[in-house]
Amino acid sequence: MAHPASSQPVPLIDLAAQYAPIADEVMETVTEVFSSQRFVLGDEVTALEEEIANYVDARYAIGCASGTDALILALMALDIGPGDEVITSPFTFFATASSIHRVGAKPVFVDIKPETFNLDPEKVEAAITPNTKAIMPVHIFGQCAEMDPLWRIAVKHGLQIVEDAAQAIGAKYRGRCAGVLGTIGCFSFFPTKNLGGAGDGGMITTDDKELAKRMMRLRVHGDVGGYEHVEVGLNSRLDALQAAVLRVKLRHLESWSTARRTNSEKYRELFDQYGLDGYFDRPEIYADRKHVFNQYTVRVPNGHRDVVVKYLRDRQVGCGIYYPKSLHLQTCFEYLGYQPGDLPEAEKACLEVMSLPIFSELTDSQLDTVAQTLCDAAAEAINGGQEYRKAA
Length: 392
Ligand SMILES: *Cc1c(COP(=O)(O)O)cnc(C)c1O
Description:
Blueprint: H1 15-19, H2 23-36, H3 43-56, E1 60-64, H4 67-77, E2 85-88, H5 95-102, E3 106-109, H6 121-124, E4 132-136, H7 147-157, E5 160-164, E6 172-173, E7 176-177, E8 184-188, E9 202-206, H8 209-218, H9 240-273, E10 289-290, E11 296-299, H10 305-314, H11 344-352, E12 353-356, H12 364-383
Parallel strand pairs: 2-3, 2-4, 4-5, 5-8
Antiparallel strand pairs: 1-9, 6-7, 6-10, 8-9, 11-12
Helix pairs in contact: 2-9, 3-9, 4-5, 4-8, 9-12, 10-12
Bound molecules: pyridoxal-5'-phosphate.
Pyridoxal-5'-phosphate binds at residues 66-68, 92-93, 95-96, 138, 164, 166-167, 188, 190, 200, 202.
């Protein structure tokens, strides 16, 4: 044995470790909300909206009930509905496409770039029809999609861009933050996102005053005040408790993102050290982008992914499969008429990806355990237990 057998369990994410050092701050602010007895919208939400707008450098930020609702409100504000098409990625969380369906429009899936798992701009233009109204790129795993070619396509064809930035708060593309890279940006505060609340929550960002006003009324049943309903909206407000918790956490977000990025560097060193690069494909990082690593996703080639995942899980090393099924092949989207093989890169990614622990509080010894276990898992997958060594 070249290394000791790993023993400690490593969770995929450890929210308790994140909470422990900020527990006092969180409980203090939660107590204040209870004292105020103002639970829906209000000062805490307004303050968080201002802070998020500042953080991503947007003119307006509008809190809502979830990332899914952020996407729905954005599409509603752009008057996208029946008869319209929205181009998006099939390799994403379900809500990206369901929001398009939910407003009555048609999701049009375009394949991904294998290196980034993001929408392939070269394939977008071919999917445009007279009904196309918007492109919805997803900054998957926390790295921005290739926006420059998407901007050019959007301008050329008069399309809106709605960013699904649910996994990418704080991520940057050529110096600008996710959330201001399109007409409207949509964030999620689901607990496992980089900025996670104590339940569901979401935020919409835009520089457009009229769209901001419209989304603010759409989240409260289209009410312009005094029970005057000028259109039918949703009940999709952010709770004061969520906003209060998120404001505490936002103060730590930069350092948490830095820790995630540092962990990705450590993985690079460990992959070198253990010779894992010949087997696993590490995520590509681009100089014009700031990756915030909501997920650290590697590829396991040769049909070995499921063996490797089982090996890790049996040894209590957390790993996730995001995503096991491309959205164009989901039962609920059968009506769109896609067949297996239509979007080969997305389908291949679904068979090969595996996400490893990357959370901010991960220790060096936990990182080492992950790398050692990967080494053993590769050995298991390749030659039934012989220690894996780089071919070189
Ligand atoms: C989490 C997520 C959403 C939905 O956010 P919720 O707050 O869970 O509704 C949408 N898109 C992507 C890519 C996500 O990761």
